[in-house]
Amino acid sequence: DMTPEDEQRQLQVNYLGAMHLIRECLPSMRQRRRGRIVNISSVGGMMAMPTMASYSASKFALEGASESLWYELKPWGIHVSLVRPGFINSLAFSKVLHSRKKAEGQSSPEYDQHYENMTAFVGKLMKRTPCTSADVAKRVFEVCQKKRPPLRAAGTPDATLFFLLRRALPRFLYHKLLFMTLPGVKRWGPARQPNRRP
Predict the structure, then answer these.
(1) Which of 59, 113, 175, 176 is 20 to 30 A from residue 162's alpha carbon, by CA?
(2) 39 has which bridge partners?
(3) Catalytic residue IDs
(4) What whole-number distance in Å separates Cα of residue 181 and Cα of residue 179?
């Protein structure tokens, strides 16, 4: 359902905007031979979810660029970090900008169940989590205070859990487990036909 314009808008906000700002700051940081860059990534930058492909792609891009910058800027004493929040208690899920097709009621009917189930699922998690944007801001501050800040830092406790889950399980098992826990996944895609014997 995403148009090229939709994709570009997502990249502009989550990836290109951060890179443009870094580019503006770097000359003075290199001149002083010190500085700190903290990019706000997301759990969506280490694990992708259905209906969030463009969002995850933009955060994966930010993760890759930040890791490259970590190496490139170290000789100038410039530290680069990523803070990865998980679910935040907010109403942000109700203000998501959908694709143009979805907003105009022209989305592909094949994916209606995906949208319906994932919107309710994410909304429920965001309402129930105790973590707030203030908690993430506190985490950013903590990272900035470290003499040797990490490249990646969890922004919320659930981000640590997702990270450990992804690292501990074999890849095939991780993906299978995640797929099985998706809400309403049995109703996604084509209708299942009963097995018929000839």
Answers:
(1) 113
(2) 82
(3) 55
(4) 5
